[in-house]
Amino acid sequence: LYSKLKKPDLALKYAEQGVKVAPDELATHAAVLEVHTTAGQPQKAEQTLDRAAKSNAVDPKYWLQLGDLYGQLYGLKTDRQATADELKKMNAVYRKAAELGKRDATVQARVGDYFILSRQLKESVPYFQAALQLPWNGDDSGRHDLRDKLARRVSYCPALRFEVALPAAAQAVGKMREMLQAVAQRFAGMHE
């Protein structure tokens, strides 16, 4: 609010107080970020996000939102390619979200989306596969959308075909082996 009223010093003062009071609330860091971004201070904006990345927050949504803020700062949704250092920071944040949300299909899918958006296609596959294995809240349309998305990514990148096909083939072979063992046991039981 103070930033919009052209009082950046006051805006920064109150935003920093918010961070001191609630360091694990991303909204407080986002307020500081907004002040620095509005003032045209990208280095201070990045330092704000780096400070937020030191949080002890255990909610995967905190980390997803922090990753989104990094992505906005680094222009991830533009044609600009992120630097290695920028990718390292964002990768760490999104991987933390995935670890904290390892039982949440939506979190896993969002992390996979990030890796696609950041042009790290191969990195996206395990997260999409995890999302497909987990239960979805509500209807199954999210799972179908995810399967379509994964199929499109695989068709764009031939190197991913092997990454995706191998676990699926191994799973199919395992099921066939189980079925054959069950048939063999039944057959053996019939001839005893």
Q: What structural category characterises the helix and strand content?
A: mainly alpha
Question: Secondary-structure element sequence?
Answer: HHHHHHHHH
Task: Indicate the proportion of strand residues.
Answer: under 5%
Uncertain stretches: 1-5
Using the alpha-carbon principal axes, give the shape.
Answer: elongated
- Give the termini separation: 83 Å
How much helix, percentage-wise, in residues?
over 70%
E-strand count = 0
**What's the pLDDT, averaged over the residues?**
81
How many helices in DSSP terms? 9
The description of the largest β-sheet is: none
Q: Compute the CA-based radius of gyration.
A: 23 Å
Kindly describe this structure:
- The termini are far apart.
- α3 (42-52) runs antiparallel to α4 (60-73) and α8 packs across α9 (158-190).
- 75% of the residues lie in helices and 0% in strands.
- The protein has helices at residues 8-21, 26-38, 42-52, 60-73, 84-100, 105-117, 121-133, 141-156, 158-190.
- The longest helix is centred in the C-terminal third of the chain and has 33 residues, at 158-190.
- The chain is elongated and about 90 Å long.
List the helices and strands and how they pair.
Blueprint: H1 8-21, H2 26-38, H3 42-52, H4 60-73, H5 84-100, H6 105-117, H7 121-133, H8 141-156, H9 158-190
Helix pairs in contact: 1-2, 2-3, 3-4, 4-5, 5-6, 6-7, 7-8, 7-9, 8-9
